[in-house]
Amino acid sequence: MSVHPMLTPFDCENAIIEDYYCKKCDFQTELTVFFKEHVSRYHSVKKEDPGALNNEYRIKNYFCETCSFLTHSAINWLQHVRACLINNEKTRQDELVWHHCTQCSYKSKNKSGLRSHLISRHLSDQDVTWYNCGQCEYKTKFKSTLNRHVITHHLDEKYIKWYNCNDCPYRAKTSCDLGKHIMYKHLDEKDIKWFNCDMCPYKTKRNSYLKKHVIARHVDEQYIKWRKCKVCPYKTKENHNLKSHMNTHHLDERDIQWCECKKCPYKTKYKANLKAHTRMCHLSEEKIRWYECQKCVYKSKYKSTLNRHVITRHLEDKDVQWYKCRECQYKTKTSYELKKHVKFKHLDEKDVKLYKCEKCPFKTRRSFYLKRHITTQHLDEQFITWYECKMCEYKTKQKSNLKSHINVSHLDEQDIKWFKCEKCSYKSKYKSALKSHINACHLTGDEIKWFKCKECPYRAKYSSHLRSHENTRHSDEKDVKWYECNQCMFKSTVNSNLKKHINIHH
User: Where's the C2H2-type domain (predicted)?
Assistant: First the structure.
C-alpha cells in the first residue's frame, strides 16, 4: 500500500498529548499554539495594544483537501490526512469487506459494529454484562450509553460541558445531540449524506433509522428478535417501543416521573410529548418553524405530520406501501391508521386499555379522545386556548373544529376536496360523513359491524349511538351528563343533538 512520502516517518498516533498549564490562571490546553497565544494576549501584552501581538503566535488553520476536516493543530491534521490517504487507497484497491451476522441478515463495515449488533440483538439477557446507573433503575448493555444517560439525566448543571450551536440559541449536553440538531435544522439538502434502502425508495439522514426501517419492513419474521411484555401479550421489534409500552400501561402511578407544562395543567410521561404540547399550544406564530407542502397550501408544525399528509393526499396508489389488516380487507397508507383500526375493530374489550375520565363516566380507547373530552368538558376557562376564525365570530376549543368550520363556511368551491360516494351522487367535505353515509345506505346486513348493547337487544351502526343508548337506558341518573339548552327545557345526552336543536329552534 502506497502512502504519501512526507507522512512515512510520522508514527505517533498512540502518543499522549500532555496539557499545558498557565501558572498565572486556570487556563489549560493540549496545543502549544493556544498556550502561547494565551500567554501573549493576557500576561505579556497590554490589551489596549492589539498590534503588539507577535505574528509568531497567530493561530493557523489546517484543512484537508479531500473532505471538510479543519483544525488548528498540525499534529491532528497530519494524523487525519494520513488516515484519509490510507482509507482512499483501500477504497480504490478493493471493495469494502463486510462483516456479516451469522444469525440474521445484518452486516457491518467494521467488527465493532458487528459486536454491538450481536450484544444488542442476539445475546440473551443473562449472558450480557449490564451497566447499571447508580442513581436510578436504568441499565444498559453499553458503557457509552450509560455515560450519556448520566450526563443527560443526573449530572449537575454546573458540571455539564455544553455544546452550543453557532447558528441558533440551541445547546446540547452531548456532541451527538448537537450533531443531530445541525443536521436536521441547519444543513443544506445538498450537503446531507443520505442513507438509502436497497429494497425500497426509503431514505433517511441517520444510519440508525435505516436499520430500524430494514428490520420493520424487510427482515423475515423468523429472523426478528421480538421484545415481549411480561405483563400482557404485547410484543414489538424495537426495545424503545417496549419501554414506552411499559411506561404507558404497566408503570405504577407513584413511580411515574411526570413532565408538567408550566403554562397549563397538561402533564405527560414523556419529555417529547411535553415539547410537542408546548409547540402546539403555547408557541407564538412567529417562533414556529412551519413545514409546508409543495403541492397544496397545507402546512404543519411537525415534519412527520407533513410526511403523513403527502402520503395520504398526494402519493399515487401505485407508489404507496399499503398496510393491510390480517383480520379483514381493510388497508391504509400509514401504520398509524392500521394500529387504530385494529384497536377499534378487532381487539376485545378486555385486551384494550380504556382511558377513563376522573370527573365523569366517560371512557375511551384513545388518550387523545380523553384529552379532548377534558378540554371541552372540564377545563377551566382561564386555561382554555381558544381557536378563533379570522373571517367570522366563530371560536372553538379544538383546532380540528376550526378547520372543519373554515372548510364548511369559508372555503371556495374550487378549493374543496370532495369525498364522493361510488354508488350514488352523494358527496361530502368530510371523509367521516362519507363513511357514515355508506354504512347507513349501502351496506347490507352481513357487511355491517353492529355495536350491541350488553344489557338489552339494542344494537347500532355507530358506537356513539350505543354510548348514548347506554347513558340514557342503563346508567344511573346521577352518572348521566346532560347537555341542556339555555333557552328552553330541551336536554340530551349527546352534545351534537343539542347543537342541532339550537340550530333548528333558536
Answer: 131-159, 163-191, 195-223, 259-287, 291-319, 323-351, 355-383, 387-415, 451-479, 483-506
